[in-house]
Design brief:
Elements lengths: L1 E7 L5 E7 L7 E6 L7 H12 L2 E6 L15 H13 L2 H15 L5 E6 L1 H12 L5 E5 L16 E6 L7 H10 L5 E4 L16 H19 L1
Parallel strand pairs: 3-4, 3-5, 5-6, 6-7, 7-8
Antiparallel strand pairs: 1-2, 2-4
Length: 223
């Protein structure tokens, strides 16, 4: 369903992105922001899934600035490489590439952002710092609780697993209490990456309910 395209950020950097187009007129545009494993088969399938639901989906390769074509699995060595790249590229620079994808996704109408893990944190940052958004959804963004001082410029929904060994649930609950206007959902049986279908981290009850909530949220904000 999807294909690779090129995007150009505002600083002139050219990056790759996976673009998945729906059948018929788009209901809106969605920017899908990767985990630390690149725009791999999982992220491409997530984008394809949103396209199947009627959205023009674009997943920018935000690690291209550190290593072009980065696409790995989930073994420890791959995880270490992903963490290293995530530290090598600062978040503000990543936002330039997300913003480029937002501009491209406007071809589908109103634009939302959805991100996972690193992308979940970037979804919150994008909502606060990038214009032109109608909505944002973040899944298990580990950096979100420490960024509670930010004020989103677009409506945001957040999802966290209560069994997530990487994100203390007390911090999530504190963040939620400080942001009563932001729906923050926690899932009792979900750990980190509970949405990663086909992987040991996947938790069907959490992933299914979170996706239902996400799709209803985007339908209300994007059309």
């Amino acid at each position: 369903m999807g294909e690779w395209i090129k995007l150009k950020a505002s600083d002139g950097f050219e990056l790759s992105a996976w673009r998945a187009e729906p059948k018929g007129a788009p209901r809106g545009g969605l920017v899908v922001v990767q985990e630390i494993f690149g725009v791999n088969a999982h992220i491409r399938s997530v984008a394809d899934g949103f396209a199947a639901d009627g959205y023009l989906a674009i997943a920018p390769a935000i690690f291209d600035r550190g290593e072009r074509g980065f696409d790995v699995g989930y073994e420890p060595e791959a995880m270490a490489r992903g963490f290293a790249l995530a530290q090598k590229i600062d978040r503000e620079t990543m936002l330039l590439d997300v913003a480029a994808a937002v501009e491209a996704a406007k071809a589908g109408g109103k634009v939302g952002v959805v991100g996972y893990c690193l992308g979940g944190t970037l979804a919150w940052l994008t909502a606060a710092k990038v214009g032109g958004l109608a909505a944002a959804v973040g899944y298990y963004g580990g950096g979100v609780p420490a960024l509670g001082e930010l004020k989103p410029r677009a409506p945001v929904m957040l999802h966290f697993g209560e069994l997530d060994a990487h994100i203390p649930i007390d911090g999530v609950r504190g963040f939620a209490a400080a942001h009563p206007d932001t729906p923050v959902f926690t899932y009792p049986t979900g750990g980190h990456a509970f949405n990663r279908y086909g992987n040991a981290a996947y938790d069907a009850p959490s992933a299914t309910l979170a996706r239902q909530r996400t799709m209803a949220f985007f339908a209300s904000k994007l059309g």
